[in-house]
Design a protein that fits this description.
This protein has twelve helices and 34 strands. With 645 residues, the chain is α+β, with helices and mostly antiparallel strands. Its EC number is 3.2.1.23.
């Protein structure tokens, strides 16, 4: 709000609010009504993007995985099973938010149905429009459909890097002359594991925003303004826990300069002169101007004569002047903003005192047996990212280079064990879905021929795909087809069956909580000799020297250097997947609006945000589950990003 913004838009995540069909959750982080009330209290309008498919780089695009098991369902299509479930959920959300609609004095002024639908099922598009016209007409607010097909009863909106230069604005004006021009996503970008951080320059983003308003754009949303985090297991396939760290507010909430201040200045000018801006149309002219303010758009360096004064316009820039030829804002100039505005400092002195607990292999958790390995999500319902597969095996020729071949999915990790001994792993961190066949060499030179061993595979989901979700496009995890070891097939045997265990023993005990921590026997001292896979580490730290206000302005972070990969919990709250995988720069710019990359050769993500309301002044419990094995948990620290004013 202090940066000239007057509207916040949010998705409604179906898989957060209805993890089990018919059971709704609006508590804690799912407290949508509190979010809407907070927006109202701050004087912000709301664009409620219900979807219910939302993409959003979110786990399964916001869809609950139990939809996979609805008989005959085909997502996002004119399919009766899909339409029945979609209509039920959206209707329930509309009823829930009714007190917050504009007609009732609430902040919701826009709502969205569907999301970026570019398929060819126009009957489905028309059906979405009929919901708006009939069932949801009582909301008395406009409904939108973004970045794809839009029904006649909805407003078509744009997502992209520049909705002026790409021709969208002119096309929309021709096709829908009676509709306002709404820009629902002016893109930043996300970061996949294993890649460096892609950046979009503040000059390019500012040029895009400035151009939009010169054409009479009525609504512009920066996607994202605040980068945010995939806490818990909410990230889409292969994506870092920090959703976007190059936007106006970093993932930890601190200003990313010069982008934050530069775009804030534009927004204040837009609010100040909104009436004049909305009077413009999308016809490009050399010097549009209105009510004492002048915008100039240049494709090359040139001079514009304005009130008998030559004004220099640089390449790809938007400039705002007043009648006295005072330059108010130049999209291309950020030189007067300090970009080195934060510093990271330790807030817990000394080395953390760790204890550890090795995840047990054999437990009394429920098991499911089958002659073939079963698909993961069907067993876990996305309530955990872990599934154990176990089967007895005997090998005729064990060697130091025994090959296990598995058909699995993208954005999946597999850890291999023999009689509880860790042998190796396979990782795929692609931001994608699809089945892949992998060959992993295992050292079985210490095994004996024709002797029976327990072969175990721990499958770790690295996120469910959020993008390619539609008819016939379900995502799956774990082992999906064949498994062989040393050329011997391990499926279809009625004698040696596969045993499946949902989740981890220590997850079920919740040993990352105060009460759960007491249910297992911790080894009181960590040493550098402890570098085992599937191991839990735990420590405590104090923050009583920090004021609550300081925690909000200068966020506390977990510096994960010394770890490898796993999940971290603070006072029982899952701050998300950490992974110290190296971020490599791509041979070409990864995608879309990006102009370059930074932090090449460094971890894709080193620092992990800890929300201030999860922290206490003293005796904070930090628990780490390390699935691959950590070389130096003693290097882990609690730090704070200090904003320098």
């Amino acid at each position: 709000k202090q940066n000239g913004l007057n509207t916040v838009q949010t998705y409604v995540f179906w898989n957060i609010h209805e993890q089990k069909r018919g059971t709704y959750d609006f508590s804690g982080r799912a407290n949508l009504s509190q979010f809407l009330q907070d927006a109202a209290n701050a004087g912000l309008f709301v664009n409620l993007r219900i979807g219910p498919y939302v993409c959003a780089e979110w786990d399964y695009g916001g869809l609950p995985v139990w939809l996979n098991n609805v008989p005959g369902i085909a997502f996002r299509s004119n399919n009766e099973a899909w339409k029945r479930e979609m209509k039920r959920f959206v209707s329930d959300i509309v009823t829930y938010v009714d007190p917050f609609l504009a007609k009732n004095g609430g902040p919701i002024i826009l709502a969205q149905i569907e999301n970026e639908y570019d398929g060819d099922d126009m009957a489905y598009v028309d059906w979405c429009g009929s919901l708006v016209t009939n069932e949801f007409a009582s909301t008395q607010i406009p409904w939108i459909m973004c970045n794809g097909h839009a029904a006649n009863s909805t407003i078509e909106t744009c997502n992209g890097c520049n909705c002026f230069d790409d021709g969208w604005m002119d096309q929309h004006h021709r096709d829908h002359p009676d509709q306002p021009m709404l820009y629902t996503e002016n893109w930043g970008w996300f970061q996949p594991w294993g890649q460096a951080l892609g950046i979009r320059t503040p000059q390019d983003l500012s040029y895009s925003a400035g151009e939009w308003f010169t054409g009479g754009g009525a609504y512009l949303s920066y996607y994202m303004w605040h980068g945010g985090n995939h806490y818990g297991r909410t990230g889409g396939s292969g994506l870092t826990t920090a959703y976007s760290d190059d936007v106006h507010l970093r993932a930890d909430g601190t200003p990313n300069e010069p982008k934050y201040t530069h775009l804030g200045r534009l927004q204040h000018l837009v609010i100040e002169h909104a009436e004049a801006i909305l009077s413009q149309d999308s016809v490009r002219s050399p010097v549009p101007y209105w009510d004492g303010k002048q915008w100039a758009i240049a494709k090359e360096q040139l001079f514009v004569l304005f009130n008998n004064q030559n004004i220099s316009i640089s390449l790809q820039s938007v400039q705002i002047y007043d009648y006295n030829q005072h330059l108010l804002w130049n999209s291309a100039n950020v030189s007067n903003i300090n970009s080195n505005n934060t510093v990271i400092v330790p807030v817990v002195t000394g080395t953390l005192d760790w204890q550890f607990f090795v995840e047990p292999s054999q437990t009394n958790l429920p098991k499911i047996t089958a002659s073939n390995p079963l698909e993961q999500l069907n067993l876990t319902n996305d309530e955990t990212i872990y599934l154990w597969y176990r089967r007895n095996v005997s090998l005729s020729r064990p060697s130091a280079h025994t090959i296990v071949q598995v058909q699995t999915r993208r954005a999946n990790s597999l850890l291999f064990f023999l009689d509880g001994q860790y042998l190796g792993n396979f990782d795929n961190s692609e931001h994608a879905q699809g089945t892949i066949t992998v060959d992993v060499p295992l050292n079985l030179s210490q095994s004996h021929p024709n002797q029976q061993y327990l072969f175990e595979i721990l499958s770790v989901s690295l996120g469910i795909d959020n993008f390619n979700i539609g008819p016939g496009h379900f995502d799956y995890k774990g082992i999906v087809e064949n498994v062989s070891l040393d050329g011997q097939s391990l499926i279809g045997n009625e004698t040696d069956v596969w045993e499946h265990q949902k989740g981890l023993f220590s997850e079920a005990r919740q040993i990352y909580t105060e009460q759960g921590s007491k249910t297992v026997e911790w080894n009181p001292k960590w040493t550098t000799a402890v570098n085992k896979s599937v191991t839990w580490f735990q420590t405590r730290f104090d923050l009583n020297h920090l004021a609550r206000e300081d925690l909000n302005a200068n966020p506390v972070l977990l510096d994960a250097i010394g770890l490898n990969r796993g999940h971290a919990f603070v006072n029982g709250n899952d701050i998300g997947l950490y992974w110290l995988i190296e971020g490599s720069c791509q041979s070409s710019i990864p995608c879309c609006c990006l102009q370059g990359e930074i932090r090449c050769g460094q971890p894709s993500q080193r620092y992990y945000h800890i929300p201030s309301d999860w922290l206490m002044p003293k005796n904070n419990l930090l628990t780490v589950f390390e699935d691959l094995g950590a070389s130096s948990p003693g290097s882990v620290s609690i730090v704070q990003r200090i904003v320098i004013t």
